[in-house]
Amino acid sequence: MRAYNKSRIVGQLLFVALGITFIYYLFTPSVSHSNAVKPKARKADINSINVYDMNEITASANARENKEEVLILSPIARFYPEYWKNLLKLSYPRNLITLGFILPSTRDGTKIHRDLRAAVQSVQKGPISERFADVKIMIQDTGLSSGQSEKQRHEREVQKERRSKLASARNALLFSALGPKTSWVLWLDSDIIETPPTLIEDMTQFNKDVLVANCFQRKGEKLVPYDYNSWIDSNVAKELASKMSKDDILLEGYIELPTYRTLMAHLHDENGDQKTLMRLDGVGTTALMVKAEVHRDGAVFPTFPFYNLIESEGFAKMATRLNYEVFGLPNYLVFHYNE
Ligand SMILES: Nc1nc2c(ncn2[C@@H]2O[C@H](COP(=O)(O)OP(=O)(O)O)[C@@H](O)[C@H]2O)c(=O)[nH]1
Ligand SMILES: [Mg+2]
């Protein structure tokens, strides 16, 4: 009797347990992503269809009147409050400007991120009329050392690797930030601390595919050339390049390897017309205005020696090979931080 009762109780318990398990599975929603997430995703897909007519994008001499969107891109290894202050002084309508930054994912990068965010937030949380259209901050480990001094950065041996990584950061920034309505891309290095407030209007008015300003440093009263990457090629340089391995790069601004290229930095005339234009074969990125179409067509910053050129100088070559025209403004100055 006792044995019979025991097995009956065990059987009943088992039955109840099975029943509870069955009811649990019947009413508990599955945690598998396919069931739980799909309906939501489907709904979001329907809402996120955006159609852009790329033929409507203009990049013209009347950028402001035509409400052309400008993307300002700055890889940023150091945050200079002067850069930000200068950026805020630009007169182009902010609702037509998107900002894009790429920072290293290092300890330095964390500090830059904090300073940059604070600066961005103070504007983007302010009056709507004063906000930028959008601000995109990308964080990426480029393996670059952002703690290098001006002298260390410019050592010839470190240039190939450094500029290759910088090119890679620029391309990542460009591909992530370029929008379907962007008309112009203004490359503005994060250590450019002074430009005319009308920089965007001034540079777009020429309606050039690629246009670079002349970058100097202020040393007391003196104006000193800074960026030697904007140049016209020379026969000597072409000859030198023709004898180089395809993996070598022909750098500018090194006494031990004179190229006799015509450097825009040396053609600055203080009393000259600011609107003077010159054709160039190489450009720097300190303040470089590019029609978005040039990038969309495939001109990027080569991370490898391209015709023995790399990064911004390689970009100028690539744009030229794509039949775009590259120009510089020798008498139109922007200023680099003086380390
Ligand atoms: N994201 C990122 N940007 C960098 C790094 N190193 C330099 N940059 C930025 O790239 C631009 C050009 O670099 P910079 O060191 O100023 O070159 P230089 O003035 O020609 O010596 C500047 O805007 C820098 O802040 C890096 O490690 N990571
Ligand atoms: Mg610099």
From TrEMBL:
Q: Which InterPro entries match?
A: Mannan_Polymerase_Subunit, Nucleotide-diphossugar_trans
Give GO terms: molecular function aspect only.
alpha-1,6-mannosyltransferase activity
Supply one GO BP term: protein N-linked glycosylation via asparagine
The UniProt transmembrane annotation reads 9-27
- Keywords noted in UniProt: Glycosyltransferase, Membrane, Transferase, Transmembrane, Transmembrane helix
* Keyword Cytoplasm belongs to the record: no
Q: Superkingdom, according to UniProt?
A: Eukaryota
**Can the keyword Transferase be found in this entry's annotation?**
yes
Query: Which named protein is this?
Result: Mannosyltransferase complex subunit
